[in-house]
Amino acid sequence: LGYTFAGWTVTSGLNMSTAKWGTSSSPSTTISSSSTKCANGATGNVYFKNLTPTANGSVTLTANWTAASMPKTLYVAMDGSDTGRTGTDSSQPLATITRALALAVAGDTIIVGNGCYSPFNAYQKPVTIRSVNGPEKTVIQGNGTATCAYLNGAENPATLIGFTLTNGYNAASGGGVSGGIVRNCILTGNHALYAG
Length: 196
Hints:
This protein is mainly beta.
């Protein structure tokens, strides 16, 4: 595990008008309150300058670090279960891609075994969803009522690799797949009012 800078706590007396922090050796971001978090966290070095006390005060500053999680792999299989499992053990897979997505965070990979699965929504989940044995063995079935795979998110698209997406439907566009990155997939028998 790595560590991510989570912020700081100033317990007393900091002159906020001059205090700065940053991830370069010339920090320029103003410390605007007595307890401030970095918006996105930071790894590596964190620098402070001008930590001067107010009149007759003293400064006590505590830096807080949190463990940064590493990308993980989640497993899905037709004989899996969505109850009481984390999905990270290949011998105890989850049953649905939807449940795996609920447990996934950015950068994770979801590995899907052979079989036919229900549609899913990976909107704004920048993960990779990959079949074990390719599109001939792994199907997303829309049943004529739903888009097979929502991968939308221009800034945070999901990636889908090695599936057949079939019988999907959307009243607007994207019956088989909507958005995202699609590789080595077969799209067949999908319908939408405008496209897809």
